[in-house]
Amino acid sequence: MSDTEFTPYTAKQEKFGSWFINRLGRMQTAVYELTGGRLWNKFLGAPVAILTTVGRKSGQQRKIPLLYLKHGDQVVMTASKGGMSKLPVWYHNVKAAPSVHIQIGADRQEYSMREASPEEEQELWPKLEAMYPSYREYRARTEGVRHIPVLIFTPLGQAGG
After folding, report:
1. 41-70 burial string, b = 16+ CB within 10 Å, else e?
2. Residues with pLDDT less than 50, the chain
């Protein structure tokens, strides 16, 4: 199946998809945290971490299970939202307050976020797609609709972040 066969989701599909992702995400976060990351630490074979941000409007702590790629000491995530037309809310929260916590398994660390440069994206997308092949579909669905940001998280206290 070629990427050209994927079209943007309809408004109805996105509404249901957002509802489903939110509900499943809450359950996955609860199980992940209760088990120290031993359960629900994968999604379709790809590794999952829990990203903790602060809501830019509410000031409340927000926790989101996201796929991640280890890249040296850094953690790489995408704001793909399953290939939907709008950026995920957590992306706006991270942009407003780029200091976050990421839990991988039982390990929880503080990180600073920056967006990957176009050159870094070119290097990272093949690795991200090898880890989770559905990223190709997500990118095809958003082609001409929006850019999917690639985010690089560096542990606080380290250079390069």
Report:
1. beeeebbbbbbbbbeeeeeeebbbbbbbbe
2. 1-3, 161
Are 54 and 93 in contact by the 8 Å Cβ rule? The answer is yes
* Domain residue spans of the chain: 3-155
Confidence (pLDDT) at 114: 97
**Helix (H) / strand (E) containing 126:** helix 118-131
Distance separating alpha carbons of residues 37 and 63, to the nearest angstrom = 14
Tokens of 86: 């709008």
3-155 CATH fold = Pnp Oxidase; Chain A (2.30.110)
Beta strand 150-155 pairing with 69-71: unpaired
With beta carbons less than 8 A apart as the criterion, state whether 149 and 115 touch.
yes
- Whether the model clears a pTM of 0.85, i.e. scores above it, the answer is yes
Tokens of 33: 């945290």
Pairing of strands 107-115, 150-155: antiparallel
